[in-house]
Write a structure and sequence with these properties.
Layout: H1 3-11, H2 22-29, H3 37-41, E1 70-79, E2 90-104, E3 113-127, E4 130-135, H4 145-159, H5 164-170, E5 173-174, E6 177-178, E7 182-188, E8 193-195, E9 216-221, E10 225-249, E11 253-276, E12 281-303, E13 312-318, E14 322-335, E15 338-353, E16 357-366, E17 370-380, E18 385-387, H6 395-407, E19 410-423, E20 426-435, E21 458-475, E22 478-494, E23 504-507, E24 510-520
Antiparallel strand pairs: 1-2, 1-24, 2-3, 3-10, 4-10, 5-6, 6-7, 7-8, 7-9, 10-11, 11-12, 12-13, 12-14, 13-16, 14-15, 15-18, 16-17, 17-19, 19-20, 20-21, 21-22, 22-23, 22-24
Helix pairs in contact: 4-5
Length: 521
């Protein structure tokens, strides 16, 4: 990836006023392991086994194995460690609620259409709860966010268009500093240094002419940082509701389709403080909010290739989710504990499309006591796509989609799970997920000089490992399932983009305890 080519490409588009980027693209495309407690405890590896209302969100054919109706509701507690930005590190959540009605076709033989099943299920596709408190490492009195801001200001001065970050940081004159963050130096047309305090700000041409009438250039310069601290909280969720129809043909072939609708409510708040080697201490506080709704279609298939064998395989495909999104953001800047500037951007609407998703699965049962499933899923996150509300791709969106393609990559998900019943009423379950990193090597966040962002930070997250266990109890038609899930993920955090800056290692580990209450009838 040519870092400077991408940066120049985005900065060549003047007047852009959009807040999303490739890092948000993967946030909105990905999902958690969530649903019923049984689904979670078995790692979600039910694409071929079926028999759970949550499976309609992955392989819609999985509900076709039902021979009776089912209703379930699930709640959970999510625990992420210490809170941040005044928000708690744990939350209770209603994660799932659904019903499936099985219609017996009363076919006189076991050939032909046996069951037609109809279901509706809502579940939280993703819980955005995350808290970060980080002392930024490897600054070495050399690296600083102010250098990146100075570059943005230089582009702004050249193009005569000031985005939020540059306007806040360089829009207020204070001695030889603009906004208290950047040094302002002047040079003549031969690049000879003219000093830092040559111009009278009451003169409308003070950026162009020196006292001697020489044509001058302005250069913005930062200062290395001694230390920096970053704090961030994200919260909200992506809730999906699926309407599902499935068919059982000869107890050997199962077909299904789901139409999903989605509602996104994503919020983040952050605080960045940096102390420069020159003694300047400044604070940036930021907030960002996205709301959106969308829909997709999911198709699935399960087959028992040998009629008398319980072994089965499944396959499914998910269309992209087509979202209409609305963004808003704002920030405040303080220098040496003194308020300096604020920025609040009006809401902006746009469209976002997730990648296609494909999955294959295997399942096998041994008698009435043991079941095991495995599943593989793939999506190419580099194909995530932004556009205007009318579908038109502006220069900004064309460049952002190209940057997304060169930042994100194909993501692989492996799921395995097993269930054992020592007696008919009691079940023990275990599961595991591996989700590969969404980022290409050396990915970085591109900030346009003319955009509304005042957040320069980004994290290149590594792979996710999820471990889950659970148990279930059945009594007559009712059941209670419990599950515990632990998710581990490490990332390379950068508070800003500086050539040569080493990352600060962080993690996003969290655990979830959940319960499902259901009834089969």
């Amino acid at each position: 990836m040519n870092k400077y080519l991408l940066l120049t490409a985005l900065m060549s588009v003047a007047g852009a006023a959009y807040a999303q980027d490739s890092y948000d693209a993967q946030t909105f495309a990905n999902s958690d392991l969530n649903g019923t407690a049984r689904f979670v405890a078995m790692g979600g590896a039910l694409g071929a086994l079926g028999g759970d209302v949550s499976v309609m969100s992955t392989n819609p054919a999985g509900t076709g194995v039902y021979r009776s109706s089912d209703a379930a509701i699930s709640i959970s507690g999510l625990f992420t460690g210490d809170g941040a930005m005044g928000h708690d590190g744990s939350r209770m959540s209603l994660d799932q609620g659904g019903v499936l009605i099985a219609f017996d076709m009363d076919t006189p033989t076991n050939k032909g259409l046996q069951f037609v099943n109809f279901g509706v299920n809502f579940q939280k596709k993703r819980n955005f709860l995350f808290n970060q408190l980080t002392n930024v490492q490897h600054l070495e009195d050399t690296y600083s966010q102010t250098f990146q801001i100075a570059d943005l200001c230089a582009y702004s001065l050249t193009n005569d268009y000031w985005g939020s970050m540059a306007d806040m940081s360089a829009g207020v004159y204070s001695g030889n500093r603009r906004g208290g963050l950047l040094f302002e130096s002047y040079y003549d047309k031969d690049n000879n240094y003219l000093g830092s305090e040559l111009f009278d700000e009451t003169n409308p041409d003070y950026l162009q002419k020196s006292d001697e009438g020489k044509v001058a250039m302005v250069a913005y310069e930062g200062a290395g940082a001694q230390k920096a601290y970053y704090e961030r909280a994200t919260f909200g969720g992506n809730v999906q509701a699926d309407v599902n129809l499935s068919f059982n043909i000869s107890d050997q072939f199962f077909l299904g389709a789901s139409v999903g609708v989605y509602d996104i409510d994503y919020n983040r708040e952050s605080f960045y403080q940096e102390q420069g080697v020159d003694g300047c201490v400044y604070d940036f506080t930021n907030w960002y909010k996205t709301e959106g709704d969308g829909f997709d279609v999911k198709l699935g298939f399960i087959c028992r290739p040998v009629e008398d064998s319980p072994f089965r395989f499944g396959a499914y495909v998910h269309t992209p989710t087509w979202f209409r999104m609305t963004d808003a953001n704002g920030s405040d800047l303080f220098v040496n504990d003194q308020y300096l500037a604020s920025n609040n951007n009006a809401e902006y609407d746009y469209r976002y499309r997730t990648p296609w998703k494909f999955g294959v699965s295997l399942g096998h049962t041994i008698g009435q006591n043991f079941a095991i499933g495995a599943e593989y899923e793939f999506q190419d996150l580099g194909t995530a796509h932004y556009s205007e509300v009318d579908g038109y791709n502006s220069d900004y969106f064309r460049n952002m989609n190209r940057i997304t393609e060169q930042t994100l990559r194909g993501q692989h998900t492996l799921k395995v799970g097993a269930e054992y019943k020592p007696i008919e009423s009691l079940s023990f379950r275990v599961g595991y997920n591996f989700v590969s990193s969404p980022f290409k090597k050396d990915a970085f966040r591109t900030i346009g000089y003319d955009g509304p962002y005042t957040e320069t930070d980004y994290t290149n997250w590594g792979a996710i490992n999820r471990f889950s266990v659970g148990l279930g109890y059945r009594y007559k038609g009712g059941y209670v399932d419990l599950a515990w899930q632990y998710q581990a993920q490490k990332g390379d955090f950068y508070a800003f983009d500086n050539e040569g800056l080493q990352s600060t290692k962080i993690d996003a580990n969290r655990s979830q305890l959940m319960a499902t209450f259901g009834f089969r009838f």
